[in-house]
Design brief:
192 residues; alpha+beta; Cyclic Phosphodiesterase, Chain: A; five-stranded antiparallel sheet; 3 helices
Amino acid sequence: MSDNGTANADGGSPEGTRRLFLALWPDEELRGRLRERLETDLPVRGGRPEPVANLHVTLVFIGDVGAGRAAAIEHAVAGIPGVPFRLSLERVGYWPRPRILWLGPREVPPALYALVGRLRAAVAAGGGPQETRSYLPHMTLIRKVPRPPGTDAIAPVSWAVNAYFLLESVVVAGRRAYLELGSWPLRQDAAG
């Protein structure tokens, strides 16, 4: 959108704003393993696969914010305490209305719920939106999937989560891409 409320030609955020979110962002090696596993265990016809570089698990969606508020939110979420944990992705889900195929954990580690709670509070304290919906960790795999797959699980892909990221969603050459604005480690000795 432009400042008069109309959409930008590139489909990006309103002028002068940044579309932000906090996420778990796997490294290149894990993204490659995920893609291989999906091609083997979850062949899906149709739809628009997410680019491998975009695969992530959203912690808190912040949305479009102005530069000043973005800086305040970044300051508020920097260094939130949390402990490392393992996340096993094996649950296949499908949302029919947006026609999205996703992957998530069968069991959510308590450390993930604790981190999300702290980050939600920090975002709100920094002037961002107050999230009230239940948290469902998931990784969007394919958009515009015509029908659900014939399975609700794949062989697990286990992930040692040891950091969280502040990302900005941008449009580059007509495609959505994510830029890292900050990352903070999770530490075994974190209080909380």
